[in-house]
Design brief:
The complex is a heterodimer. Chain A is mainly alpha-helical. Chain A has helices spanning 8-34, 37-53, 64-82, 92-104, 106-122, 125-135, 141-148, 152-176. Mean pLDDT of chain A is 84; it is low at 1-5. In chain B, 15% of the residues lie in helices and 37% in strands. Chain B has 6 helices and 25 strands. In chain B, helix 1 packs parallel to helix 3 (39-61), helix 2 (25-37) crosses helix 3 (39-61) and helix 3 (39-61) packs across helix 4 (83-100). Classes of the chains: A mainly alpha, B alpha+beta.
Chain lengths: 177, 536
């Protein structure tokens, strides 16, 4: 499975390094294409399987994330063929454009991820706690609503507002750098 | 439409998709229209979903002000700092989890073509479960434990006991025709029916050609004939309303011991009778489920040599056609120092059972082991199977990658649309069931070091969809000899004709996850008898 000459241990180590550095980006790519965290996580596992078994096809020095996202794209397409059409949320043509664009702006997404920590710290404590309640592993809209003492409808609005604020903050942060 | 309003609309639609997991067909079309029209909206879409991915990652690593892991119900008191940096260590484990799947999709088991698409998911809604039967003509189609959907339920002969998902039991005596509208409403067109509710739940509405009955904590029976109907109340009270009588609808309360016969004239001409419990079937024998109790496979991990599992020579228990076999030897994340078998350290449930003398299976690291069943799990048949095992978590809420899964699948196949999975995710405090792509998860109220009984029910049907249900019993919780009406996890229904040969145990954990006493059987009683508080 090695893309280079070397021992199997070296290959494992190289694969681990590359995959560890890029798996978050692949997961984000899958979330964009599926809109469902659970499906994205399951497809990430399947993507890892294929990436691992096809690692000998990977050319060292090229973009590992882009290569892995290509594998992930086909996993998404297979998944879409396996579920009812009513469950998919974009046409194949638009999905392809979305996939291409996500890979194109991949480096920007990495930079945005790094800038997000600073933007989170600019939020007030209550909003941060609210977001964590929504996005922690066992979190939910209901939990966030309960902790914030908001109605469910107000919680949906607040989440949309906070995501927009964070998105803008990250853009400003990157523009200032 | 202005750019600003398009941006706001995309955010609104994304909120529906990401927070509510629901987009109507109209909203899907609208989203597509907006994305096609303006490329900058495509970027907004990508940036937002990526942001959510980042937030989920950061939140999974967030700690409270005291440095404790985030617990459900408790929010952090300060922002997570440097979470992304700490995430690198965790991501190695995530990688290990991902790579582990290789064991069933390559190498060891050979290659397989891409999965064939199953039919679209059904909209069928199940509302009841077959508990027992006597001489029922449809017992082959609906063995004990089968799920019953809404709609017409007709029986030609015999008696069948259904437990509604809302709790009450119905004994239906053929020849009869019932229309199950929901788990709290039905219409009896003709035939005999006994209603019994020991659950104290919401009222059940039963209509007939002449009446509407609402139970008020009741056992009562109704017999509907061609020209009249009888109602007999055995306990509690029943509220009856005329549905065909002229004039204002009359409502009467029938009490314990009362019985009446009605015809199309309704209450006005009702004939008072003696309540006759013996006219109706009100219970069925224990062994009348129509399915013989049978253990299909079992494993108690009763081994004397701790190296047996890792050396691929563990062949204890019954119902298997192979030894336990581990995956590829040097898979990333595998903990070679852990032999996995805990000899003479078996799990037991609370104080209800004697601690077993055998061992158990526990592991820290990343490892898969699989075993082939003599009898496959065949989803194309009318069948109900049960899986049970004891589970002991450690590291609850401590690491995001700290879980064990029990899977049924085939060699060379591991895709989510073609496997059954029961995932116990201690890191996230979640239990998840997945049946061929239909998934459901629930919070897992467990404590480190305590043992829990996990029972999964696999209900398969040729004509109706299939469903997976999981019930988790707390250490001191009584285990009934009878299947419960409520479950911890109930997956959406799905049609599948898969047939699975392999059981795989998939460990990916930084703290020991322990499993013991695995059983696959044909009845609830078979898999729970050891722990049942009603056992002999």
């Amino acid at each position: 499975m090695s893309p280079q000459d070397g021992t199997e241990d070296d290959d494992h180590t190289r694969f681990l390094q590359l995959y560890t550095a890029n798996q978050h980006r692949v997961l984000g790519y899958l979330l964009t294409l599926t809109g469902d965290r659970n499906v994205a996580e399951d497809l990430l596992q399947e993507t890892a399987v294929t990436v691992f078994t096809k690692f000998s096809d990977f050319k060292p020095g090229t973009d590992f994330a882009a290569w892995a996202c290509q594998v992930a794209y086909w996993k998404v397409m297979n998944h879409r063929r396996s579920v009812a059409r009513s469950k998919t949320f974009l046409s194949d043509e638009l999905l392809e454009r979305l996939a291409e664009r996500t890979v194109e702006i991949g480096p920007t997404l990495d930079a945005r991820r790094k800038a997000l920590d600073a933007c989170l710290q600019r939020l007030d404590d209550r909003d941060r706690a609210f977001l964590m309640a929504r996005y922690q592993p066992d979190g939910s809209v209901a939990l966030a609503a309960q902790q914030a003492g908001r109605t469910t409808a107000a919680t949906y609005k607040a989440l949309t507002r906070l995501r927009q604020a964070l998105r803008d903050c990250v853009s400003l942060q990157l523009a200032a750098e | 439409m202005s750019k600003a309003s398009s941006n706001a609309e995309i955010d609104e639609l994304l909120g529906r998709l990401l927070d509510r997991a629901e987009l109507s067909s109209h909203e899907k079309e609208r989203l597509e229209t907006l994305l096609v029209r303006a490329p900058e909206l495509l970027d907004q879409f990508i940036l937002t979903t990526s942001l959510v991915n980042d937030l989920q990652h950061i939140a999974s690593l967030a700690v409270s002000a005291e440095g404790d892991p985030m617990l459900p119900g408790g929010a952090p008191k300060r922002a997570p700092r440097g979470a992304l940096v700490r995430g690198i260590a965790v991501s190695v484990l995530t990688l290990a989890a991902s790579v582990a799947v290789i064991v069933w999709s390559s190498g060891l088991f050979g290659q397989r073509a891409a999965p064939v698409s199953p039919p679209p998911a059904s909209r069928t809604e199940f509302v009841a479960t077959v508990v027992s039967q006597d001489n029922w003509d449809d017992s082959t189609t609906y063995p004990a434990g089968s799920r019953i959907p809404t709609g017409e339920f007709a029986i030609e002969q015999g008696v069948v006991q259904l437990q509604l998902d809302s709790g009450p039991n119905l004994f239906i005596e053929g020849r009869a025709r019932l229309d199950l509208k929901s788990d709290s409403e039905a219409h009896l067109a003709f035939g005999k029916l006994v209603f019994r509710d020991d659950s104290g739940g919401d009222p059940f509405h039963l209509s007939t050609p002449w009446s509407e009955f609402v139970d008020l904590g009741t056992e009562y029976a109704v017999a509907v004939g061609d020209d009249d109907e009888e109602v007999h109340v055995f306990s509690g009270e029943v509220e009856r309303s005329d549905v065909v009588a002229a004039g204002a609808p009359s409502v009467e309360l029938l009490r314990d011991g009362q019985a009446k016969r009605y015809d199309k004239a309704g209450s006005a001409s009702a004939e008072v009778m003696d309540s006759e419990p013996s006219k109706f079937v009100r219970s069925l024998g224990e062994a009348s489920g129509g399915t013989a109790d049978r253990i299909i496979a079992s494993e108690a991990f009763d081994y004397t040599d701790p190296a047996t599992m890792m050396e691929n020579s563990a062949n204890g228990g019954s119902g298997w056609s192979s030894c336990w076999r581990k995956n590829v030897p040097d898979m990333p994340g595998h903990n070679a120092k852990d032999m996995a078998l805990r000899v003479e350290d078996g799990l037991f449930l609370g104080s209800a059972a004697q601690p077993p003398l055998s061992g158990s299976l526990g592991y820290v690291g990343h490892w898969l082991t699989h075993r082939e069943l003599l009898e496959p799990i065949d989803l194309s048949s009318n069948r109900v199977l049960y899986l049970s095992f004891l589970y002991r978590p450690e590291g609850m809420w401590e690491d995001t990658e700290n879980w064990v899964k029990v899977l049924f699948h085939n060699a060379g196949e591991g895709v989510i649309e073609h496997r059954i999975a029961i995932a116990l995710d201690a890191g996230r405090g979640i239990i998840r069931g997945a049946l061929c792509g239909a998934r459901k998860q629930c919070p897992m109220p467990m404590s480190n070091g305590a043992s829990y009984l996990v029972v999964a029910k696999l209900a398969f049907s040729t004509d109706n969809p299939d469903q997976l249900m999981i019930r988790v019993f707390q250490p001191e919780e009584p285990v009934s000899a009878h299947e419960p009406a409520s479950w911890t996890v109930v997956t959406p229904v799905i049609h599948s004709n898969d047939s699975f040969r392999l059981m795989t145990l998939h460990f990916n954990c930084t703290h020991e996850q322990r499993i013991d006493e695995i059983r696959v059987a044909t009845s609830w009683a078979s898999v729970t008898r050891t722990w049942s508080s009603e056992r002999d």
